[in-house]
Amino acid sequence: MKKIQAYLILLLLVTTLVVPAFVFAQQRTQTQPAPTSPIRKSKAVTAGVERDFDEALKVIQEQYVDGRKLDYNNVFKSSIIGMLRSLDPHSNYYDREEFDELKTDQRSEYFGIGASIQTYAYGDQVDTYITATFENSPAQRGGLRFGDRIVEVDGVAMRGKASLEVRDKIRGPRGSTVRVTLERAADKRIEKVDIVRDAVPQPSIPDAYMLKPGVGYIDMTRGFNYTTTDELLDALERLHRRGMTSLVLDLRNNPGGFLDQAIHVAQVFLRNGQLILTQKGRNGYRDNTYESRNSSPDLTPLVILI
To answer: Residue range 118-130: average pLDDT?
Structure first.
């Protein structure tokens, strides 16, 4: 009898200890749902955004007056650009043609005829004219002159077209031939000129000259390309030979470019050890500090236009 009573007490004790623990575990399971994966949460958010975008596009297609004539490249491109602008003012998006043009600009040269052109409107007529030819360029060798009107390029009429469209028609692979039909400014004579395209320098520093005795000026408004530092050093040497004692460096509307070129340009004017910039990456893997390594910088008094 005592043995049975001892078993009952032991069973009651075990039940008292185990059941609350079981109930507590069940409550924790019911009240604490499994944590949501960041990836799953991100997918849920982007799925909602995609639905909103699809709905907005559908409304435009059905309700906008020219909804059936949409340029979808521009529609999606502007959406992407807007998304990037919400991050910072420096991120940008380029379609294939724009990216090819960017790479051409960064090479500091392009393949064409070496002429500056400009579109002018006279009443309802829009025409493109030669405004300058580069020294020793294919255009100069072909006899193109200021004021010549571009009538056709390879048989295609250019009247009414924007200068960028005319430019793209004239440019092409190096060594290829383009036929330009001109109306000569001097006598209005129509003439066809065959020009072989070649590499045309496109410097990132187009001008460097003396503003007045002792004061030099360097135009650096076209970005930091492959040759920018070499062009800057050449310009400084020429201005120093002409007696430069102070300098105006024009960076207004500079679109940026290669980081290493910007660092080298800053290094031209900064003493050894001076901080140029710090770079912070997303995860700390690309954190860098750049300092000048120039033991003989150009210490000419400097004003920078920005």
So the answer is: 91
